[in-house]
Amino acid sequence: MTFDEKLKKMTDLINNRLRELLAPEYPEIIYEAMAYSVFAGGKRLRPLLLLGACEAVGGDMSEALDFACAIEMIHTYTLIHDDLPAMDNDDLRRGMPTCHKKFSEDIAILAGDGLLNLGFETMLERASKQQDMRYLRAAETIGSLCGVRGTIGGQVADLLSEGHKADKDVLLYIHEKKTAALIQAALKAGAIIGGAGEDELEQLDKIGYKMGIAFQIKDDLLDITSTAEVLGKPIGSDEKNQKSTYITVFGIEKAEEDYLRLSGEVCEGLARFGKRGQFLSEYSQKLIDRIN
Predict the structure, then answer these.
(1) Minimal CA–CA distance to 234: which of 88, 107, 101?
(2) Which domains does the chain have, with CATH numbers?
(3) Which pTM does this prediction carry?
């Protein structure tokens, strides 16, 4: 099976399971809003990393599927809330109207809340059925990295830095918590379910951090070099919202240098997992070379 064939197969598995988990009930509008955002062209980056990490340590990816779907729902909740008028006030996400533009601000808030809650329901239901501490530990890992000591803390620091130039430490804190944390969570949770040892978990945690920072630097670069059509969202939104970015703090030359250095270290680290980590390594390279 080629990489592209495997990527499609894994993405289809994730999407099919997400459709099952988001099957509409009453009141239908909340499920419609949740599904709208989940299926609005997302690349399934984090769930694919989670499944790839499970495979890289010798685990069965099917055992981690519900956690892959859960982390995608949690990630989508952050995007819905990030786009709200009180936050970034964006009209487009992945080339489509944002959730609050398609529905309404109140439904968008509740759709984000619903996805966050359903993500944890899904993980805990799986853990309860399996009666296996791996699943509880994986859920705890995701919970700790998406909460106030993770993505929420990063979002708060990001809001507090608006209107003035953040210092280097604050900017790195924002990027670590707001972006890298969920990537670290995906790699660690997948590896935990796959039966990884502590050394492998430590390696993947470091890889996830570097991947997350590199991903955010690339995002900052694309915000000033790409187009809304290619990127699928408005460009220049960081400047519009007077947000500090890697470029405004470190300069474009250092941003490009650090992006290439971190990307190289990610590839080098994943190479240590050998043949089992081939998909994870190839997929990470695909992320590094992305244009949107």
Answers:
(1) 88
(2) 3-285 (1.10.600.10)
(3) 0.93
